[in-house]
Amino acid sequence: MKARLLLGGYLLFSAFVVQASERWFEIEMIIFERAPDSQLQEQFPEQVTPIRLGRNIDLVTPKFAPSIAALLPSLTLCYDNAALNQSIANASQAWQAGFKLFCHQETQPLAWQRKSIFPEFLLNTIVPLPNRIAPQLSGSGMFKGVPYLAESTAFGLTEVAERLRRQRQHQVLLHTVWRQAPVTERRAIPSRWFAGENFTERFDYWGQPNEQSSPTTNPINNSATALTEINSVDVLEQIASRRAQLAAGVTLDQPTTAANETNANQNQVNLPNDVWQLDGLFKLHLDHYLFVNTDFNLRRLVGESLHSINVKQSRRVISGEIHYLDHPHLGIILQIRRFTPPAPEVVENSLATLAPSPIQ
Predict the structure, then answer these.
(1) Where are the domains of the chain?
(2) What is the pTM of this model?
(3) For position 110, what pLDDT does the model report?
(4) Pairing relation of β-strands 132-133 and 191-198?
């Protein structure tokens, strides 16, 4: 057992040594939107430029929607029997709200739907994201050996962000600091950033309004109306015609809607699930010099329509200097600073306590 601990400790120590030898940087980024000029007639693109996520480093989602998969199995079902269901129904609303925080509420599969003889639970482990994300984004600052959010005391461009906030024509959407060790462009993985307002409930990714189901005051009459409409179409005659064509060896053409559905499914691959005011990718790579590639979509609500502006830029940057990536609609301020990872003294002390005493 002690040998395993020593081996694991030495491996951890070697990993810290490798990480300490890497060139780590601290990246501070401010992204702000320029308000449109009322005297100018802006021209927005008719189609949305999709940003495919693919492999990326997401530091925002764990901050606002952490995984609760380990917590849910320890909870019990809310309505596991009729007696409990009756007691909850007779309780006050305030008590019911408190009780529901400590139990499962997802609809469970019926007996004939289960694939195993043992109880199965359908658990929703995804926490919904908020309707809006505040501009300033920071983390615990604990060094993890992988890209991570820095602590709030690491912000060095706070005064610049405050100046932007005081200007009416600018809106700061994101101000964050994170740390990472850049690699070559071929190995670099972009980080994903999103902020501002969440338009998911109102629009889809392509900026089209979501279809709202109209309220049904009389479901019986609505069902009867739908049934009448279905019966008005001579479905049996169409089936007989199709069978006659198949019997005659005639090749039946696929409806055009099938191809449209296939294209629509392909268009949804690797797209974000939510529609944010700001959403995109940031890639930092090191090839003798530091290079930055940004690809962001800015959503702007104009009347009842949601327009999208794609801002894609590349720049060679110098550590320590403040860089400004300009665009008529979106501005990005960057400062990349050298960062020294913490020394592995803690690991060394841990190894010393695990090491066996010398034989006298």
Answers:
(1) 24-66+129-208+270-341, 68-126
(2) 0.69
(3) 73
(4) antiparallel
